[in-house]
Write a structure and sequence with these properties.
With about 50 residues, this protein is an all-alpha fold. The longest helix is centred in the middle third of the chain and has 20 residues. The radius of gyration is 14 Å and the shape is elongated. It starts with 11 loop residues before the first helix and ends with a helix. The mean pLDDT is about 75.
Length: about 50
Amino acid sequence: MKPWPYDQYFTVAEFAALPIAQQRQIALIVRALIYYLEREPDAVTDPH
């Protein structure tokens, strides 16, 4: 299994070709990030 290419962006086709487990992992990360950004918008822009 190849190491995960964190530095690359994926097209929809490339994402669809990934294993389901990795798709779910990415989806969880994205959902958590969106949730965080919606809950704490100031934490992103305010350095303190």
